[in-house]
Amino acid sequence: MIRIYILAIAFILSSFKIVENKPLTIWLIGDSTMAEKPTNKFPEHGWGMPFANYFNHAVQVKNKAKNGRSTRTFLQENLWQPIVDSLQEGDYVFIQFGHNDESQKHADRYTSPEDYRINLLKFINETRSKKANPILVTPVSRRYFDKEGKIKQTHLPYSEVVRALAKEQQVNMIDLDEMSRDLYQQFGDEGSKLLFLDFPAGQHPNYPEGAKDGTHFNDYGARRIAELVLQEIKKQQIGLTTYIVK
């Protein structure tokens, strides 16, 4: 009988240990610039793919970003609720939308700046309701230079909505729009093509006719964008800093 009690106590203690050692989860929600890509789309990469490799074993990154989604469609397609249901105290949710919200030519995904704000606020409030940590991210910039070789803004007024909401709600905010434009400017109009799906025909078997895409990154570009996010995590001393290994 004593042996049975000892075994029972050992089992209970081991269960507590499993819970205690459960990895911290970083959730990524957003669009194609962040999302995972299948191998038949390589070298296209969302920045969330290399981002996951910069943390130690105490962190798991769950990339739930999805191509073509705006804040509105992410909610309508019930992509958000399962995440809310899974959130644990102390988790982090990185929220980066805007590319598809602003696309007025696609009525199925377009979201006005006013509704965009409402949707972002929903993500913030429901994340906080689970005692998790929302992190707002302005939409990463497209590659778009003017005739003088100066990078242009491509996400106003959506980035402004994110900035204002972060200040109002006292939420950590990573201004990826501004930082990515600074990065492109350093590379210049022609050199910044090295960050994107931009190459001639015959260079990659997945794109026999080549690619000329100023929105989506190749593996190198995705890594450089992920490093900007990590740089800002460290600068703001967000709680994840101690888990970064590279």
Please describe what this structure looks like:
- The longest helix is centred in the N-terminal third of the chain and has 19 residues.
- This protein has a single domain, classed as SGNH hydrolase (Rossmann fold, 3-Layer(aba) Sandwich).
- The chain has eight helices and seven strands, in the order αβαβααβαβαβαββα.
- The N and C termini lie far apart (52 Å).
- About 7% of the residues have low confidence.
- Strands 2-1-3-4-5 form a five-stranded parallel beta sheet, sandwiched between helices. The protein has a two-stranded antiparallel ribbon with strand order 6-7.
- The chain has 246 residues and is an alpha/beta fold.
- Helix 5 links the parallel strand 3 and strand 4.
- The chain is globular and about 50 Å long.
| CATH fold call | Rossmann fold
Total count of helical runs of at least 4 residues: 8
The order of strands across the largest sheet is 2-1-3-4-5
Oligomeric state of the chains in view: single chain
Uncertain stretches: 4-20
CATH architecture: 3-Layer(aba) Sandwich
- The CATH homologous superfamily corresponds to SGNH hydrolase
Q: Characterize the largest beta sheet: strand count, sense, and whether it forms a barrel.
A: 5 strands, parallel
Determine and state the CATH class: Alpha Beta
Secondary structural class? alpha/beta
The sequence of SSEs as H and E is HEHEHHEHEHEHEEH
The dominant shape is globular
- Could you report the average pLDDT, rounded to the nearest whole number? 93
Give the termini separation.
Answer: 52 Å
SS strand fraction = 5-15%
User: Can you count the beta strands?
Assistant: 7
* Total domains: 1
